[in-house]
Amino acid sequence: MSPAQKFWLALGLLFVFIAFAWPWLKRLPLGRLPGDVVIRGEGFAVYLPFTTMLLLSLVLSLLLSALGRWLGRG
User: Fold this and answer.
1) Which domain holds residue 25?
2) CA–CA dist 50, 37 (Å, integer)
3) Please, are residues 36 and 47 in contact by the beta-carbon 8 Å criterion?
4) Euclidean distance between CA atoms 36 and 17, whole angstroms
5) Rounded distance between C-alpha atoms, residue 74 and residue 38, angstroms
6) How does 6-15 read in b/e, with b if 16+ C-beta sit within 10 Å?
7) Residue 73: pLDDT band by 50, 70, 90 thresholds?
8) Contact 36, 51 (CB under 8 A)
9) With DSSP H G I counted as helix, E B as strand and the rest as coil, what are the percentages for the chain, rounded to 5?
């Protein structure tokens, strides 16, 4: 199997996993973690999800690193 085929297979499996896990994933407190800033004023709200962005960055970095090793590029 070529690296491109492995990549598309892994991406497709990831989408299938997310689709099946969505009922549980939407219960995660992403966007409402300690360190996520919400500024509310009259007629506006500003969301700054710092902690959520750091956590998602870490998870995506680990997943992409594992995918790179699986494809033989790491």
Assistant:
1) 3-70
2) 7
3) yes
4) 27
5) 39
6) eeeeeeeeee
7) low
8) yes
9) 60, 15, 25
Residue with tokens 């800033």: 37
Q: Which helix (H) or strand (E) holds 72?
A: none
Q: What is the pLDDT of residue 11?
A: 87
**Global pTM value:** 0.61
| Long-range contacts, 49-55 (Cβ 8 Å, 24+) | 55/30
- Which DSSP symbol is given to 41? E
Res 36: pLDDT? 92
DSSP state of 73: -
pLDDT in tens, 14-25: 899 989 998 998
Give the count of domains, the chain: 1
